[in-house]
UniProtKB/TrEMBL annotation:
Name the UniProt record assigns to this protein: Rieske 2Fe-2S family protein
InterPro entries given in the database record: Rieske_2Fe-2S (IPR017941), Rieske_2Fe-2S_sf (IPR036922), Ring_hydroxy_dOase_asu_C_dom (IPR015879), Rng_hydr_dOase-A (IPR001663)
PANTHER family assigned: CHOLINE MONOOXYGENASE, CHLOROPLASTIC
UniProt keywords, alphabetically: 2Fe-2S, Iron, Iron-sulfur, Metal-binding, Oxidoreductase
Domain Rieske: 53-159
Example of a GO MF term: 2 iron, 2 sulfur cluster binding
Length: 423
């Protein structure tokens, strides 16, 4: 075994991560090394981030031919671009000549993709158009940009770095699309986008998102509209929150009635543990007026998305393993993507979308639109940073999850199953 590990460092790293998983107590948080060990991190990048479907953005971020965005993950830079035929495509952001990056990180718009090094030029469909002094004996058709697998579901864009991506997203898409379609992301635009680097492991970022056990005292802005009893069963609701929970049940019944009348799907669809593309989607009520993420729950954008006429549609909440959660409301959409940077640093990108014809300063105010989630993200960053410090402490012993943290347990079980499936 020693000779094998010396000759194959990756095998040694995989043995290492399996050893930690084998010592995990079911129903408890992960051993500290799974949040801190650089070898574990490298193994996760190889086994998960280079092989699973990852949320990278929305069609609203590339609305016109030549518009592009980049998504950097696992050492790779992915270029997502709308081509001249209106098709959204993805390519490796690597010139086929000597490997230079074609575009800098971020968003932009081009007529053609021109490498700044030697002026090799590619069409928006990835084909090579111009290469100075290239020998006529070389087949230019073989020198197009290398494609990256891309799937668009209801306006959400997912990519996979795998040479042969699994088909699980395609199977899930039919269950998901009808929930997203009423919001017409193809007729939306970006109102704001904020990148926040959290000082914690990517799994801690996801775990923090997967429960609202901390919301009552941790997110005063969010819980103006996000019911504090979310995730609790009837027998777990404390007396001090009974009035909040009764209000939630009333709002839920009213929302279900509205959705049924409008033909908008709302029921829970959840498959978070066993499948590679683990996901959960459901339409849920908001507190207060029930329209948007504002202090009183009233709408933040005057122009509703798509052809929606009723602003009181709560929030359609959608999250996917391993890197996204999304809230779709009648007046706007908020998307969140997670990208691991190092064992203890994670990029969280938040994007706010509004109707393409909504006018800033008339139909919405950017500061008001983004206020609740900017505050919530900063609060979550503090929770994640403090937890990262704790799991790195020799005194850390994994603790038990309670019922309100069942989605955290689902995520950890998914993580365990996906790692084992790839080793």
């Amino acid at each position: 075994m020693t000779d094998q590990l010396v000759g194959d460092p990756a095998a040694g790293r995989r043995t290492n991560i399996l050893d930690h998983l084998d010592h995990r107590t079911p129903g408890h948080s992960l051993p500290g090394a799974l949040y801190t060990d650089p070898e574990v991190f490298e193994t996760e990048i190889d086994l998960l981030w280079r092989r699973r479907w990852l949320f990278v953005g929305t069609v609203a971020e590339v609305p016109e031919p030549g518009d592009y965005l980049t998504f950097d993950v696992a050492g790779s830079s992915v270029l997502v671009i709308r081509d001249d035929d209106e098709q959204v495509r993805a390519f490796h952001n690597v010139c086929r000549h000597r490997g230079s990056r074609l575009v800098a990180p971020g968003n932009g718009s081009v007529g053609n993709l021109v490498c700044g090094y030697h002026s090799w030029t590619y069409a928006t469909d990835g084909s090579l158009r111009y290469a100075p002094q290239l020998s006529p004996d070389i087949d230019r058709a073989c020198l197009g940009l290398r494609p990256v697998a891309l799937r668009e579901v209801g306006g959400l864009i997912y990519c996979s770095l795998a040479a042969t991506p699994d088909g699980d997203l395609d199977l899930a898409a039919d269950q998901i699309r009808d929930y997203l379609t009423p919001h017409r992301l193809d007729r939306a635009k970006v109102a704001a986008q904020v990148d926040l680097v959290e000082e914690g492991n990517w799994k801690l970022v996801l775990e923090n998102n997967r429960e609202c056990y901390h919301c009552e005292g941790g997110h005063p802005e969010l819980t103006c509209t996000f019911f504090p009893t979310w995730g609790l069963s009837e027998d777990q609701v404390p007396d001090r929150l009974r009035a909040d929970h009764d209000r939630y049940l009333f709002a839920e019944a009213d929302l279900m009635r509205r959705c049924d009348e409008l033909g908008i799907p709302h029921r829970l669809v959840e498959d978070l543990v066993e499948r590679p593309f683990g996901f959960r989607i459901q339409r849920e009520p908001l507190d207060g007026v029930g329209e948007s993420f504002s202090i009183d729950g009233s709408r933040l954008v005057g122009r509703l998305l798509g052809d929606l006429a009723d602003p009181q549609l709560g929030r359609c909440t959608f999250h996917t393993q391993p890197n996204a959660w999304i809230h779709l409301l009648a007046d706007h959409v908020v998307t969140f993507s997670v990208t691991p940077l190092s064992p203890d640093r994670t990029l969280v990108r938040t994007t706010w979308l509004v109707h393409e014809e909504a006018v800033e300063g008339v139909d919405y105010d950017v500061e008001a639109l983004t206020a609740v989630w900017r505050a919530t993200n900063e609060q979550d960053a503090t929770f994640v940073r403090n937890t990262q410090l704790g799991v790195a402490d020799p005194a850390y012993v994994p603790g038990p999850y309670n019922e309100a943290e069942r989605h955290v347990d689902y995520f950890v079980r998914w993580y365990d199953a996906q790692i084992r499936s790839e080793v």
